[in-house]
Structure formats: C-alpha cells, structure tokens
Amino acid sequence: MIHQVHGLWWPAADTEARRVIVHDCTGSIDALLRHFTGRDCIVQAGGNVGVYPLALTDHFRKVITFEPDTVNAECLMLNLQARDSLRRVTALTAALGAELGTCEPVAVDAHNCGAHRVDFAKGSVPVWTIDQVPLSACDAIWLDIEGPELLALKGAEQTIAEFSPVIACEDKGLCAAYGISQGELQSWLGDRGYEQIDRIGNDAVFRRAT
C-alpha cells in the first residue's frame, strides 16, 4: 500500500526514510556536485521513491536509477510521471551486482523503506550490471544500496575503464553481510587508479588520479 505525503508517493508503512531522505537530499547533492565535473549522465542506485533521481535531473542531462523493491519502484514511477521526468530519468526495477541474475529485496525495517537490502541467493527481481547498460557517457556513479556497493562496481568494470566516472559509495559497514571486508572497496578502486578525495556523511567519494 502506498500514499502521498507532501506531493510524493511513499510506501504507507514508511515513517523514517521520508524524513531523512528529503532532509538530506539537497545538502548531499550540493556537496557532491563540486566533484562531478561532467553533466551528461549519472548512474544512481538505489532509487528509492525518486527523491534523489528527481533532484539530479537539475544537474545531469540523463539519470539512470535502479530500485529493486517493487513498492518503492511503484512510488518511484508515479513520482517521475507526476513531474514529467521520464524523458530525463531511466528507472529500472532491478538491483545492481557483479553479474546478471535475480534477487529478493529484504525489508530490514518495515518503517524505513530506505533500509532494504537484497538477497542474491533467491528471488525473482532482476539483477543488472552497469556494464549491461548502453551508455554513451558516464560522468558519475553514485551507489547507496545497503552493502553490496563493491559488487555493483565489479559489474561496472568496463564502464569505469572507458569513462573514468567520479564514484560515490555509501560506506557504513554494511558490506560484511555480503562477504566484503571493510576497506576492500577502496583497495579495488585503488588498483584501478582511483583515490578517495572526500567523505560526505556516509558517502566515500573517489576519482581516478591524474
């Protein structure tokens, strides 16, 4: 079940995400924009109900967003339609991973639709790789997917090699649930010429060294 709050569609059970996401969105984007030099295309996940993808359309010609939870994705599509943003945003009901497959979204907190994780061992929701997406440009990759950020980057290796996007990843210790050690993401990116240039809240920001 979904409902509208201040003009946006949200899962009816949510009480936490809408408070935090709406409050933090503008500040997070403003802080990250100083590192995002290109403005053609950003790949963003998770899309949640669309607050961040919608805000990013003010700064990028194209936004590609992924959201695996079907209720969140329903709200996302309604919010994009209401703001006539489907021309600028490609929204996929899917998770990101290191390889193609399927998964099942898991609600960690019924009252926080931003805390969902995915179980790659079961389920029917598609898992995409970023390399699967046909891209003519990729200026930035911004991942907030509750733990498997490194897996999503491994599925973007060709994209990273071709476009050298600025990369921002949530980094708050959730990676252990996916068998990923703390610092492993940084090491993987370092092997590909990236260095951490900033930390904004829970987001670590990386750019390829010149």
Mean pLDDT: 96
Task: For the largest sheet, list the strands in their spatial order.
Answer: 5-4-3-10-11-13-12
From the 3D structure, determine the CATH topology: Rossmann fold
CATH class: Alpha Beta
What is the overall number of helices?
Answer: 6
CATH superfamily: Vaccinia Virus protein VP39
Our measurement of the CA-to-CA distance between the termini, rounded to an integer number of angstroms, reads: 49 Å
Question: Top keywords for this entry?
Answer:
alpha/beta, 4-stranded mixed beta sheet, globular
Write the layout of secondary structure elements.
Blueprint: E1 2-5, E2 8-11, H1 17-33, E3 41-45, H2 51-56, E4 62-66, H3 70-82, E5 89-92, E6 95-96, E7 101-106, E8 117-119, E9 125-128, E10 140-143, H4 149-154, H5 157-163, E11 166-170, H6 184-190, E12 194-200, E13 203-208
Parallel strand pairs: 3-4, 3-10, 4-5, 6-9, 10-11
Antiparallel strand pairs: 1-2, 7-8, 7-9, 11-13, 12-13
Describe it for me?
The protein is an alpha/beta fold. The protein is built from six helices and 13 strands. The protein has helices at residues 17-33, 51-56, 70-82, 149-154, 157-163, 184-190; strands at 2-5, 8-11, 41-45, 62-66, 89-92, 95-96, 101-106, 117-119, 125-128, 140-143, 166-170, 194-200, 203-208. The strands form three sheets. Strands 5-4-3-10-11-13-12 form a seven-stranded mixed β-sheet, sandwiched between helices. The protein has a four-stranded mixed β-sheet with strand order 6-9-7-8. It starts with a strand and ends with a strand.
